[in-house]
Amino acid sequence: MGITTSGARRAGSAPLDPALPTRPNDPRRRWSPPAAEPLYAPALAFVLTTAAFCTSWALRGQTPFGSRPRAVNDQANQYVPFHKGLWDLVHGHGAGDLFLNWRGGFGQQYLADYATYLGNPFSWLTVLVPRRHVDVAVFALSPLTMGLAAALMAVYLGRLAPGSWWQRGVLGACYGLCGWALSDASYIPMWLWGLAALPLLGIAVEWCVEGRRWPAAALLVALAWAGNFYTGMMATIAATVLLAVRLLTLPLTGRERGRALVRAYTAAGTGILLVLPLLLPSYLASKASQPTRVGSFDPQPLDVFLTGMLPATHLWGGRPRLYVASLALVLALSFFFDRRTAGRTRLVWGAALVLVAASFQFPPTQFVWHGLAVPNGNPYREAFVFSALVVIVAWLALAGRPRPAQLAAGLGVLVGATVLLRRTDDFGSATWVAVLGGGALSLAALLLYLRGGRRLLPVAAVLMAAVVLAESALAATEADTRRARERWAQPAATAGASFDHRLAAVDRVDGWPRYRTDSGLPQSAYNDALAFRAEGPQYYSSYLSSATYRALEPLGYGFKNDGRTFFGADDPVLDAVFSIGARVRPAAGAPEAWTGSVFPAPPLVTVRAAPYASPHPAGVWSRREDVLGATVYEVPAGPAHLPAYTARCAPGTEAFWYSPGLTGTLTAAGASHPLAARQTGVLRLGTVPASGRVVVSVRARGGTPAHPLACLDPAALGRAVRHLTATGATRVAVAGHSLTATLPPRTAGSTAVPARTAVTAARPASAPAVAVVATTAVPGWHCSGPATPFHGLLAVRLAPGTDRVSCSFTPPGLAPALAGAALGLLALTAVAAAPLLRRRRAARLP
Fold first, then answer.
1. Are 97 and 108 in contact (CB under 8 A)?
2. CA dist., res. 430 & res. 555, Å (int)
3. Which residue, 713, 703, 689, is CA-closest to 624?
4. DSSP assignment string, 467-527
5. Which pLDDT tens digit goes with each residue over 199-228?
6. What are the CB-based long-range contacts (under 8 Å, 24+) for 664-672?
7. Can you say whether the dihedral through the CA atoms of 155, 160, 164, 168 is positive or negative?
8. Mean local confidence (pLDDT), 89-98
9. CA angle 253, 259, 265 (to 5 degrees)
10. How confident is the model at residue 637 (pLDDT cuts 50, 70, 90)?
């Protein structure tokens, strides 16, 4: 909504005469945009935004415009694999459903992963392309979402004040190409949905202020939060700021303001209720996830913070990217020099900009922006909100037809600020190009528009659009180039012949659910199980359950990110515990080829006598034997003395090493192995020679466990696997989020304790039996019998005569969330149907 004269005007017409007292920025009058608005402005914003962003890819030679990899950090490790998993689910190749994902982490919740990583509506476009091109489709989500955000901003600007469609399109592109989008979120498709959510919620605010379309406003809130609740929350806080500004600057009565507030907050509450089935399970999954180390927020120095507002800046590390193109900055600065705009309007918008920026630097308000949590990474993830306010103020200035002196003053302030901040650490030369070149051309385009007459108006429009496109392409290229200096941001390959051969090798040996298949080493990404349709431990998610961490960490799996990322392991004991019966490996002599092998493995559900105690000292080796139910290791006595360690084991056994406290290099049998503390996990050193002597040399720092080395007896492991197979389930059926196992009659109710291979102990001949499912006991499982603890794995106590066990997984919180969504839908339906009922009642009256 904006201000105009009493006569009706069409959106896209020439702006009002600045001499009129009722200017667009004057709070004394209001205007209503037409019901049907041409799509020229959003179309221009979309095209400019996508063209500028893709131009930067082409300049860098990145996929799909060159051979250079595009996937940065989590784009390779999470987003591409998760979208491949979505493709498999839609096309009938998935293992699980929307509730549970069997591919990764030996079975993890899926609904929260979907809501967080796949909520962007454009994500569904990735299922329309061949699977081998899903990565390119994921890359395309960024320009598509940024383009949509720019288009929506162009529509929203039209509701604030009248003006030319091409001006709104250009300024919409300035928003879609803001520094946050180009530098921080360009490779994070789900966060980019927040960029689209903000103008969506701005439109909802306008409807609430106007007193109409309450159901549509609630649906926009639901759409904003469904795409990504994290940035949706930030966009909602921004919408609260916009609502406050509009209520303070529009000529409304106290009652009108009260009604607008009620409409806005009830629409927000109803919209959030509608998506509660995504929000509440995700929240509870987050609470149950493996916690990370809590950091602290350290505000950036003032000069660094202000430098982040200059166009085309990309400062080192987690610093704020608050800028928009110089055109919008010049206009926004000129707004505050416009004496023809009401002082109250300038004061309120200026206060909103200052207070929002200050809230980014103040720890308590910074926590509010991030949902009362310290972000793990760049702490200025809400920066797009400030950029949106700058673009809105720029539009208000342009709609008021600023005078040349005002524009010159705005450019002067921008140049002066750049001169003062030029010595800021990591200040880049691209900023000078954007400020001096882009700023000067922007001023020229604006002067042509204001003083050039109708004949030069097309020239001004083309020049304005071209400046924004070129400057934004430069900013995006600069962001990619400078970000690549940081080790975490090195682009990784996500497709190619090796990927295709590896997927084909996994498919050839697939035997799910009779046994699991591991996608092998080396890993290409942290979620290789999803990427290659395997069922191994590889999993990386913010929702990895702490129950999974507590189950896998004691067994010697390598991990990082404080336990939210688990790696694979070529380890026969762990294969037996988790029913891994096939694995793929690089083919010898063929660099990009992979081959698969199948080997004996117990079924997914085994029956155990409990408890079982390893005779070895407490540690990773004894814990493995406790879970396996048999003694299979020989653990040499005595502490380890580094850097040289010598032990003796039976010839022909397999030597393994575990030192989670060491970082450095280990050498054994002529081969070197890197040690990266807990990331390394258990290492296979090779076969013990005929001498029985194992020599290990370690050059590393950190502490050493008491018994870092153990030797595996393959024959003993073979006997344990055969016993678990003979006494385990004869048939296992998996359907989405449920599992049913048929047990052999002789193990129903009790099972004999397997003989030990080394040390024996007095034990009852029979013990209560438990069915152990080779998955971790994450919250949400419900089984046909009472649950019983089994070293972190899902286990069910078996009553005598039981020959069948079943389990089903339901995301915690789903039932109350569905009830809340039903309540929201009822409210939405009632409000939407009320006018129709009133009209019918009125039609029946005489």
1. no
2. 51
3. 713
4. HHHHHHHHHHHHHHHHHTTSGGG--B---SHHHHHHHHHHHHH--TTTSEEE--SS-SSTT
5. 999 999 999 999 999 999 999 999 999 999
6. 664/698, 664/699, 664/700, 664/701, 664/702, 665/698, 665/699, 665/700, 666/696, 666/697, 666/698, 666/700, 667/696, 667/697, 667/698, 667/699, 668/694, 668/695, 668/696, 668/697
7. negative
8. 95
9. 135
10. confident
To the nearest 10°, the Cα dihedral for 204, 205, 210, 211?
70
Q: Which of 548-552, 669-673, 834-838 has the highest mean pLDDT?
A: 548-552
Q: Which residues have CB under 8 Å from 734's CB, separation 6+?
A: 95, 102, 512, 513, 604
How far apart CA 411 and CA 538 sit, in angstroms, is: 53
User: How do strand 654-657 and strand 605-609 relate by DSSP bridges?
Assistant: unpaired
Contact 564, 289 (CB under 8 A): yes
pLDDT at 768 over 50: yes
Q: Which residues contact 463 (CB under 8 A, 6 or more apart)?
A: 441, 444, 445, 448
Question: Smallest Cα–Cα separation from 573: which of 616, 530, 610?
Answer: 616
Q: How distant, in Å, are the alpha carbons of 4, 62, 484, 492, 522 from that of 487?
A: 54, 18, 7, 11, 19
Task: Please answer whether residues 710 and 572 qualify as being in contact, where contact means their C-beta atoms are separated by less than 8 angstroms.
Answer: no
The predicted pLDDT at position 174 comes to 98
What are the distances in angstroms from CA 57 to CA 182, 186, 462, 830?
A: 12, 11, 23, 49
Sequence spans of domains, the chain: 40-68+119-288+302-488, 497-605, 633-712
Please say whether the beta carbons of 391 and 174 come within 8 A.
yes
Burial class (CB in 10 A: 0-12, 13-18, 19+), 758: middle
Per-residue pLDDT at 641: 78
DSSP three-state, residue 764:
coil
What values do phi and psi take at 530, rounded to 5? -70, -40
Q: Cα separation of 266 and 221, whole Å? A: 11
Residues 837 and 215: their CA atoms lie apart, in Å, by: 15
CA distance 102 to 87: 15
* Residue whose structure tokens are 């296979």: 684
Place of tokens 């653990």: 635
pTM of structure: 0.92
> CA nearest 138: which of 117, 111, 110, 114?
117
Q: Are 649 and 655 in contact (CB under 8 A)?
A: yes
Q: Residue 299 has what DSSP assignment?
A: P
Rounded Cα gap, residues 838 and 846, in angstroms: 14
Q: Is 785 left (phi over 0), alpha (psi -120 to 50) or beta?
A: beta
Q: Which of 209, 119, 234, 215 is nearest to 156 (CA)?
A: 209
- What three-state secondary structure class fits 569? coil
Q: Which helix (H) or strand (E) holds 241?
A: helix 229-249
162 by DSSP, 3-state: which?
coil
Neighbours of 762 (CB within 10 A): 4
- Using CA atoms, how far apart are residues 534 and 314, in angstroms rounded to an integer? 39
| Rounded-to-integer distance, Cα 169 and Cα 398, Å | 12
For residue 808, how many other CB atoms are within 10 A of its CB?
17
Q: Residue 726: is it exposed, middle or buried by C-beta count within 10 angstroms (0-12/13-18/19+)?
A: middle
What 8-state DSSP symbol labels residue 679? G
SS3 266: helix
Q: How far apart are CA 134 and CA 370, in angstroms?
A: 31
